[in-house]
Every structure is written in C-alpha cells, then in structure tokens.
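Worked Example 4.2. Consider the chain below.
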Amino acid sequence: MTTSMPGRLLSLLLATVLLLSLAVACGADRSPGVEGRKVLRIGVKYDQPGIGLRSHGSFLGFDVDVASYVAERLGAERVEFVGLTSGQREEFLIGRKVDLVVASYSITPLRKTLVNFAGPYYVAHQDIMVRGGERDILGPRDLAGRKLCKSEGSNSWKRVVEELGIEAELVDAATYGECVQLLLDGGLDAVTTDDLILAGFALRRPGAFRMVNARFTDEKYGIGLRKDDVSGCEAVNRAVTRMYQDGTAARLLAKWFGPTGLKTTTTVPQFEGCG
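Applying the procedure from the previous section yields the following structure tokens:
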C-alpha cells in the first residue's frame, strides 16, 4: 500500500510535533534555576536558636531572615521553608527537595564538588562552649582527653581532632541541639562549632554556658544551590551584596546576636566565585 505525498507530509509533521512534545516533557522534569521562580523551597536549620529554629510552626533566625531577603531579590512571591540537619544539606539539594540551602553551611572544597555555593553571606569563627562554671578549658588544646560533641554532618569536630591532632573523646549526636543538651546534662565537656551558633544557644540560657572566645577558624557561610545553577548563584551574590549595602545585614546581625555582645562583621564578605 502506498502513501500519498500529502499523507507522508502529514505523518512527518505529526512525528515532529510528537518529538517536540517529548522534548518539552523531558525538559519539564528538570527544575529551572532559582532566579525568577515564583515559589522557592529553602532548606534551613530547625534547632539552632538565632540561626534557624522552628517554633509554633514557623521558622525564625538570622539564616531564615537572610533566606527571605535573598528570595525576594530573586523575584520569588512565596518561600516554603524546609527544616533539615547538617547531614541532609547536600542530599536535599541534589535530590531536589529544596532549591536553596541557607543553614550555617560552611563552604569547603569537598562540598564544592557536590553543590554550588553563593557567598559567603557571613564569615563566622569556630569557637568552644563549655558549662558556665568551667574555667580550665581556654582553647582547643585544652580539649585533649575531654568529651567533645561530634554532630552528624558537621566539620567542626574534625578541625579539632583531625586537623589540630587533639585527642578528644568524641560523643555522637544528631544535631547541635542534642550536643547542647548533653553539655547541660554533664554528658559532655565542650561543644565546638561556629560562634554564631553557640551564641544563639548561650542566649537562651543566660549563665548556663560560657563561650571561650578562641575564634580559631574562619567559617564561610555559603548559600547552597544545585551544581549546574551558575546564573542563579550569581543572582544570589548580587542579592547578598545589596543586603550589606542597604544595611539589612547589619540590622539582622544586631537583631539576633546583639544581646550576646558577639563581635560581628558588617562589610560584604569576599565571594568565593560561582561554578
């Protein structure tokens, strides 16, 4: 049976339309970059006072406010916050459960192989927190032989034990909230992580804890994106720059950490570069 020329043309046209439809459908499976999206899902911490804390169904903290500011500058009309732990940050980004992560997320060479980072939007410093009456721990070297929290997904304990070679006794915990409770209950001698995180916990229980003020590392807090979203990363950097220029960064730092007396920086950090 032969097919007429018009019939062949019609068949070719239908086949082309079908291929284009499939291409569009396949493309629809790929989430676009963060810039210009109406709704952004942003991963934040849920148990870090001052940084990201879930309270009565809402998320509160410095990182939450930074995320809201950046989302607005990106053109988002609504933000859906998703609570996550340190160990879930890469998983949630790569698995497309969130579009951005703003969760005391220190930029490291290893993490940069897995995700893209905008920022840093703040440079914190690793410090040590002990119980209020503890006077013998004054710096990292004093952690030798002491019980130190090993929070899942965090690099802080590694900087003490692996990089500085200090033989502390590590005690596992899922989150820094658990670390702080263990410290309060006597199950630990110290918790070490970024000074902003420790300050937030210390503020909730005045007198219960003491920050050593060792400040022995720089912790560059980045905003995590998927690896291929370079243009989104650049847009986030523009938003962060504006956040410092218009005074929002200084206002938010004072709002969340002013009562602790913590010295904070209010100039635009040096960006790492996208891609």
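Residues 125-211 form a domain with the D-Maltodextrin-Binding Protein; domain 2 fold (CATH 3.40.190.10). Residues 1-6, 8-30 have pLDDT under 50 and may be disordered. Compare this with Example 4.1 before moving on.
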